Structure formats: structure tokens, C-alpha cells
Amino acid sequence: MIKNLRFFFVFLFLSSCGYSPIYQIDQELDFKLDTIYFSGDKKISRKIEQGLEKFRNNNSKNIFNADFVIEKKEEVITKDKKGNPSSFKKTIELNLNLSSKTNNKSFAKKFIKETTYDSMDNKFELDQYKINVEKNMIFKILQDINIFFNIIENDL
Prior knowledge:
alpha+beta; Double Stranded RNA Binding Domain; 4-stranded mixed sheet; 4 helices; flat
């Protein structure tokens, strides 16, 4: 009997906790991006634009123009005895400027993601790894942009 009572209380507390994920990307926001300008790296720009597509087709009263400046850097950190690179550092920097069409407010934010990785003997695998690292960095930047939009929506 006591064992059943414990399960009942555990079930009661877990079912009424009101959990909601913080970093959920698919949240519905009262936020619309009307015009989006990109400058910088074109591949990253296309991926960011695809990630922000849900904000373009939104019917909202909060309408913004967005200006993205994207810069990608890849540096050699260390070299081996022969002078071949042995580790790299990749940095993606995104400057976001938002200007409201409805109430003349403007917001600016800089998003920086960087990572280091080691070189590989197989150049094809290294290129595939670089592509995966870049995709992950872009996904993290899109998460940060979504959080920033949530904060802006709460401030309006």
C-alpha cells in the first residue's frame, strides 16, 4: 500500500510541474521579419535565412527589418615539425541589427561562436568534419537568435 502511495505522489508531482523547454526553436512568437539584408559569407547567409524563414511568414503586429553581417575566420593554431597545420580554430561572427517598423525601436546584438579542432591525415574526412562543425555552429547561432527574439518580444 505504501509503495502504491509513493508512485501516486511521484506521478502527481511530475504531471503538474509545468515544464516547458527554454531552448525550443519552434516556439510561436509575435514577431515578423519583413526585410532581411545579408552581407558577408554567402553559404552561412543562406543557412541563416532558411533558419529564419518561420519569422517571415508570420502575421504579427511587431514588424522588423533585419541586417546581418557575417564573418567567418579559420586560423591555424599549431603546426607540427614539418610545418603542416595540426590544429585549427574556426570562428563565426554575426552582427544583427534590428529596426522596428512600428515603433522606431532598434536593437543590436553580436553572436560569436568559435571552436578548435585537430587536423586529420585524410583530407576528405577533415573537409567533412569542417562542414559538420560549421553546421553545428550555425545551429547554435540560430538558437541564440531565437532566444534574443524571445527577449525582444518580452520587452515590446
